[in-house]
């Protein structure tokens, strides 16, 4: 036996032991297990690696998928309630979701109703977007420097802030007749009303952001040689950016809210214009379609502002 290969003993079959062990009944057989082979260990290691990989993949995609599922769960529930409340009711003034979908499709690409509203969605959407983003840009260009001056310079605050606080509570709809008198019927009145809706949220949040800048930042900047107007760009603006972006989100949201009122001033194109025309014609499906488009693009606009804010405010613990 001395000449045998030692490897043979590693793979020998299980052997039974007749030896009696304490704690066992006499006559019982104890099976002695052999060491695991290399192939068995490799198989178990591979299975463990597969389980770990699957667990990592699940843990990586589930946190990203969960918010999406939660976000669409409530709208789907509302859609189901809307469907069951309006389906098979011809006399209902509220159309079912399927009819609204067909109308929205006809507004976008036509081929269903072939009426005056078919394939006009892009024209109306571009017209409304130009007024929303144009009015928002003008509001941002005026509210940002004015808010920084009011928040930082006491004389300007005492001079302008009381008037701003008096004008701010006036609803945009109350400005509608005056806007039509000053700017006339047409897009300029709509542009002014959208600007007005976006102006005050940006202004108020800019003032708040500037006034909450910590005084020690100005002291540190002065010690480093940053004085005078340079502090506006090196200290005030960066420190107030979180509040400014909050105001931008609110202002852009109000701009989309006001667009329907703004386009009641005699404009021929725009989502607000077709909503008001459809209301007069009792075309509720067009009204709801316009509302859906405004909501969708308002949401996308808000996400765009949030994306820009996250990039510019990566240093901020609450926005990073």
Describe the model.
The protein is an all-alpha fold and 320 residues long. The chain has 2 domains: 37-88; 119-312, MetI-like (MetI-like fold, Orthogonal Bundle), CATH 1.10.3720. It has helices at residues 38-86, 97-109, 121-152, 154-167, 176-183, 187-211, 215-223, 230-262, 271-280, 284-312, and strands spanning 15-17, 30-32. It contains 10 helices and 2 strands; from the N terminus they run ββαααααααααα.
Quick overview:
This protein is mainly alpha-helical.
CATH architecture of the largest domain: Orthogonal Bundle
The overall strand count is 2
Give the distance, in angstroms, between the N- and C-terminal Cα atoms: 74 Å
| Tally of distinct domains | 2
Strand content: under 5%
Helix content: 55-70%
Q: Report the biggest beta sheet as strand number plus sense, adding barrel if it closes.
A: 2 strands, antiparallel
Supply Rg.
Answer: 35 Å
Low-confidence stretches: 1-21, 27-34
Q: SSE order, as H and E?
A: EEHHHHHHHHHH
Rounded mean pLDDT is: 81
Taken from the alpha-carbon principal axes, the silhouette is flat
- Class by SSE composition: mainly alpha
**CATH fold-type name of the largest domain:** MetI-like fold
In the CATH scheme, the class of the largest domain would be Mainly Alpha
Widest β-sheet, arrangement of strands: 1-2
State the helix count: 10
CATH H level, superfamily name of the largest domain: MetI-like
């Amino acid at each position: 036996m001395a000449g045998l290969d030692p490897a043979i003993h590693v793979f020998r079959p299980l052997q039974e032991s007749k030896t009696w062990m304490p704690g066992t009944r006499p006559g019982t057989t104890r099976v002695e297990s052999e060491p695991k082979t290399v192939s068995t260990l490799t198989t178990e290691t591979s299975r463990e690696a597969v389980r770990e990989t699957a667990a990592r993949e699940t843990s990586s995609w589930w946190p990203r998928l969960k918010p999406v599922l939660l976000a669409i769960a409530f709208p789907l529930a509302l859609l189901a309630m809307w469907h069951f409340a309006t389906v098979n009711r011809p006399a209902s003034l509220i159309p079912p979701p399927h009819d609204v979908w067909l109308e929205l499709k006809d507004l976008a690409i036509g081929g269903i109703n072939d009426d005056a509203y078919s394939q006009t969605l892009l024209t109306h959407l571009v017209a409304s977007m130009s007024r929303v983003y144009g009015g928002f840009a003008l509001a941002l260009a005026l509210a940002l420097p004015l808010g920084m001056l009011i928040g930082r310079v006491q004389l300007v605050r005492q001079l302008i802030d009381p008037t701003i606080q008096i004008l701010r509570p006036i609803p945009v709809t109350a400005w509608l007749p005056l806007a039509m008198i000053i700017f006339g019927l047409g897009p300029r009145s709509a542009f002014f009303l959208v600007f007005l809706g976006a102006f005050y949220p940006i202004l108020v949040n800019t003032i708040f952001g500037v006034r909450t800048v910590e005084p020690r930042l100005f002291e540190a900047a002065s010690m480093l040689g940053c004085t005078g107007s340079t502090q506006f760009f090196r200290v005030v603006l960066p420190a107030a950016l979180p509040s400014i972006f909050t105001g931008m989100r609110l202002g852009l949201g109000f701009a989309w809210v006001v667009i329907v009122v703004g386009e009641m001033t005699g404009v021929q194109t725009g989502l607000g214009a077709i909503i008001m025309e459809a209301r007069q014609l009792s075309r509720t499906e067009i009204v709801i379609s316009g509302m859906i488009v405004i909501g969708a693009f308002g949401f996308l606009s808000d996400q765009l502002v949030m994306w820009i804010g996250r990039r510019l405010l990566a240093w901020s613990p609450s926005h990073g």
